[in-house]
Specification:
Distance between the termini: 42 Å
Radius of gyration: 20 Å
Order of helices and strands: HHHHHHHHHEEHHHHHH
Largest sheet: 2 strands, antiparallel
Strand content: under 5%
Length: about 290
Amino acid sequence: MRQIKISKSITTRTEESLNKYLTDISRIPMITPEQEVELAQTIRKGGRTGAKAKEKLVNANLRFVVSVAKQYQHQGIPLIDLISEGNVGLITAADKFDETRGFKFISYAIWWIRQSILQAIADYSGMVRRPQSQIAISNKIKNATNAFMLKNQRNPSAEELSEIISLEIEKIEKAIQSEAHVASIDAPISDDDTTTMADSIASAAEYASDRKVDYESMCSDVMLVLGAVLSERERAIVVQSFGIGCPERGLDDIGSTMGLSRERVRQIRERGLDKIRKSNMSYILLRHAG
């Protein structure tokens, strides 16, 4: 069987070409868990043999990328472009996968596939990345919060975050209420660290159970939707009210910090939720319902 070339940009393919691509990948044999282990070990050795092993591991999972991409259709981005972005994530996962942890490759790869697709959707929706100097503290908080939630299945308190990242409670609380918590998943964690949010999320969840992978995926999807739909103040109120990526706070507490009445905070929260329900991205959240 001829080799299938995977590239980041396949936007010039016609509908006929897409159908042919789907037919081609449907003919690629699946691989066993034992073969996954062997391929991962070979990939780490590098060289031409490693490259061939990587290609085989990627090709065997192309069907899965298509199934994920189809979940994100009808948002203005052609399906074939969503598949292309997902393939980029799959290739990245093949480079980073460590079979010694005992988990299936696709349980790890789903992170990179989804993040690549969601970033494309976010870019299309007009999300604007903030300067690094403004996102350093909030990204440290989010990084610590994601890791804490993954381990404890609950949001950390401000005191716990303070201990984890060695930052004063007052600064943490100020950052939580002032930041929108929607930095790009490709934004650096800090000014002097090239590690991105996507890297940190995948690192924290790559060897988690399927349940935890789904939980973290939901959190990531929620943050992207909030960033694309809500204003900064609406986002700040919604994320604090529901404890999304930060300690949960009551309406009175939020109002006191922002100089608003309890009723005004409630009104802004409800307005934000209504905007989410009516947005063309609400389908992303509906996938996690039930």
